[in-house]
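For reproducibility, we list the full input for the C2G complex.
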Amino acid sequence: MTQTIGVLGAGTWGMALARMLAVQGHRVTVWSALPHEVDQLAAERVHPNLPDMVIPADIIFTKNIEEVCRGQAVLVFAVPSPYVRATAAAARPFIPDGQIIVDVAKGIEADTLYTMTEVIRDELQRDGGCRNVKLVALSGPTHAEEVARDLPTTIVSAATDLSVAQTVQSLFMNTCMRVYTNVDILGVELCGAVKNILALAAGISVGLGYGDNAKAAIITRGMAELTRLGLAMGCMEQTFSGLAGMGDLIVTATSRHSRNNRCGQLIGSGVRPADAIAAVGMVVEGIHAIPAALKLARRYGVEMPIVEAVDSVVSGGADPAEAVRELMSRGAKDELTTTPYDVNFENNHLCDGRRNGMKRVITYGTFDLLHYGHINLLRRARALGDYLVVALSTDEFNRDEKNKTCYFTYEQRKMLLEAMRYVDLVIPESDWDQKRRDVHEYHIDTFVMGDDWKGKFDFLKEEGVEVVYLPRTPEVSTTEIKQDLAK
Ligand code: C2G
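The corresponding predicted structure, in tokenized form, follows.
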């Protein structure tokens, strides 16, 4: 369905996205703060950094920020990170409440430590307006030059509200761009900002004449320190090994398209940082992100040696080769982030459990609107052994087989169960007949259900499994909760 899209920023990435959306049939208006840029693009229909890309004739260019903001299904902020706040301030009077805003600038604001969507929200809500603005971070391994040529690309649409992330997912999804949703918007934006610093480091390494071994080390150990920071900030680990994290780092740290990489190479080859930035000629986001990354690392007590080394070279005037020597001569480290004690304890506990016949228990359920009746069941089930597996009914199974409409999605219900001390593993329950398979696949000794199912699963005894029905907690149920809340 054709949508009207406003794009703020006519840089390389903004124009590559604007073209893609226009080619998909959407009505696109592009605004830039630079009048001459608007005139040139409107006239020539070619962006200087994308000489092979034809700008569709139906893209509207404007110098008037009100025109780009009014009446748009989605607004895309594609200005470089240092200008996001000023652009949001200029746009504020024209942005209706509830507007979906997609930020594609990658960075963290040095003084506030805000990510770009947080900067936009802060600016738009400054005078109490835009209470319901919906912010999405669109970020991933996406060179504009390749998107401009419709080369296969993947990207992440991140928003705390999954339905909003999905709206943006469907808008940007096409045969050339595959969009994944992710609710961990902070993790996605942190990756987008800090990976530019790591790309600078990779460039410096190349500029010093070092090889692929050093580049792989920077990418791997750089992602380890970024993940440490992200986990300390409450992000999801999978985000960092995902497209916005490792994916974008690979593409930025290994590609000639990357400004951060090019800037790093110049610095590594001996060019003064200021001259290297000038030589690249465009905004080098990695440089802007360093102060914020260091402040976050200190605030959360996380070691980030590679970021520190880049800062010593870029801001401290240190010799790049000397900075690498210092990195290489740091104290010996263990690659596993859990301490050896944790690892040994976990192994001993598991081995011990196996030696003494660790008893493994399984139970099944929907567990919607998790309440103390469920907890009573899970606590008693866990007490029957050493390890509890919960087979959680998927959304489709609930809808198609159990005729249940859940308040929480499978992922949300899974997150709640995994946070509980009684639950060791959550697996999906997608059909009635999987129990016979599960008890073998997960080496189950005891099957447990509430006694509202008494007798229904006795057949599992044929599989050598103990079957236990536990008394339900009579006075509470998800259905009653919903009915009481509806009154
Ligand atoms: N339960 C309980 N006391 C309550 C409510 C639930 O002991 N007040 C128990 C149920 O008996 C069940 C578990 O908690 O063992 C999960 O309850 P539901 O989410 O309602 O599970 P159900 O829909 O019964 O799904 O294949 C088996 C099904 O998936 C079971």
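The mean pLDDT is 93. The chain has three domains: 4-183, 187-328, 340-486. Both points were considered when choosing residues for closer inspection.
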